[in-house]
From TrEMBL:
The chain crosses the membrane at residues 304-325, 354-374, 386-408, 438-456, 507-524. Gene3D superfamilies: P-loop containing nucleotide triphosphate hydrolases. One of its GO terms (cellular component) is apical plasma membrane. This is ABC transporter domain-containing protein. It is a multi-pass membrane protein. Keywords: ATP-binding, Membrane, Nucleotide-binding, Transmembrane, Transmembrane helix, Transport. It is found in: Membrane. GO terms for molecular function: ABC-type transporter activity; ATP binding; ATP hydrolysis activity; efflux transmembrane transporter activity; organic anion transmembrane transporter activity.
Amino acid sequence: MSNKEKSVHVGEECFQQHGPTLMFSNIKYCIQERVGLLCKKGPEKVILKDISGILKPGMNAIMGPTGSGKTSLLDVIAGRKDPAGLRHGTVFVDGRPVTNDLRLTSAYVVQDDVLMGTLSVRENLLFSANLRLDPKNHSSADKQSRVENILEELGLTECANTKIGTDFIRGVSGGERKRCSIGMELITAPSLLFLDEPTTGLDAYTANCIISLLHKLSRNGKTVIFSIHQPRYSIFEQFDQLTLMHKGDVVYAGKADKALEYFSLLGYQIKAFNNPADFFLDIINGEAESTLELPATGKPHETLITIVVCVLVLLELICATDAYTNVTRVPGPRRRESEREAVLNLLRTPQTSYAQWALTVFFALLVGLIYYQIPLTLPEGLQNRSGAFFFLVINVVFSNLGAVELFIKERSVFIHENANGYYRTSVYFLSKIGADLLPNRIVPNIFFSAISYYMMVLERPHARMHKIDPFKNQNIRLVLCCSIQGEMFLQGQGIDYSRWGFWQNQVALIGISSVCLVVAYIQLRRIKRWK
Ligand SMILES: Nc1ncnc2c1ncn2[C@@H]1O[C@H](COP(=O)(O)OP(=O)(O)OP(=O)(O)O)[C@@H](O)[C@H]1O
């Protein structure tokens, strides 16, 4: 029976693809530690020690104590770990060595959910659909129906219109948030799903719901691979394959329901009513007693696994099946669509803009009141103007300091979405700049300047001289007087008040801004996408 025939049809296109089999063989992964203030190269730390294994369609759990290398293994298999650290080893998908494409053909749900807090659950899913589904093959109605199907499948219909939540808005619950993160990845109908500790931070019931959901997906043919820390029994019994890790080594790799039998052969007996998952961790941590000892290598199945890997690879090469093509290819990012959506969504963070606008108006009124209708008499006319200009310039500088953290705040979102093929770096950069520049930088400054300008009556002298108003004669005289003094004052300060003197500042400002933007873009491109 072919893979396609094996796929289970449940009425949803997103759950039809049959998952691939993954094999990893002799993976050795090291990290270069940095020491001292100058970050000199320290000793190399081996975090995965020549490990091998097979992960099949179904529920594949990677379990182990903290720091055992679960996430590292998951990342290496999923192609998310910096390849510079990979000393040797290969990952095969349906018998073929993986390429960079795996990142785009599979789904990866990170531990800390990266969702847009100001958008609702439905809007987040639609965002993913619009950015990741090729408009040539998927109409708007198609995308919409796919989103509705996923909402229903993940039990999110009731909270579909609830916002995810931010620091300011109370949003959906932790479980709903996690399910939404999974839904974001299911949009592309991937047959291979990676999840990094999907139950961390959730209560026992919600954790069970998430695992049951993954179990349901796996029963529809998907290969679900996830790292997990210490599951309760009702969760453990849903695992098909278990990879037990300890200090970068694989202690057990095989069927989850055969693990107890395996350890009992090694002399470990589980006590009545004990949770097998806890029992395995006790063994790994040396807290369980055995009449025998664990194999010295700690990798009881390694030889067998290596043989199976080699046989499967050979079989694949001989048969040259097209199984790998069953992994759904996520289309590449489409610039125009991405740009439109990114701008739209970035503009939908009104809370920060509202707060900024309100503050701007408040400070404009404050400065305007302090320097209300600056007199044209000397010396207070001159002194007040100097003070007012100082306030205006300082406000513009400080109100724009927020731009510094523009890309820092969303670093993890950008890395996740960029790595998953939502959009290109240039699209994100231009959208972010465009969406931030107008509502958060230009508009507030126009408001600020306009309000304070008219409250202070900083009108240019010649503008008033145009007015044919006999009652303003006195003012004109004072304006002229002040204007002459003003020029003298500027001369005294060494400020060039000629036309070019004015424009050279604008040119310098544009130059500095352009250089900063180019540097920011280069830095954004240089951000490590690897973990
Ligand atoms: N980029 C890195 N830099 C430094 N150390 C790292 C890096 N990646 C992994 N490690 C180290 O490798 C070891 C395994 O880390 P990993 O995150 O894979 O463990 P884990 O089993 O997933 O742990 P946890 O359950 O706490 O998330 C740890 O000792 C960790 O400190």
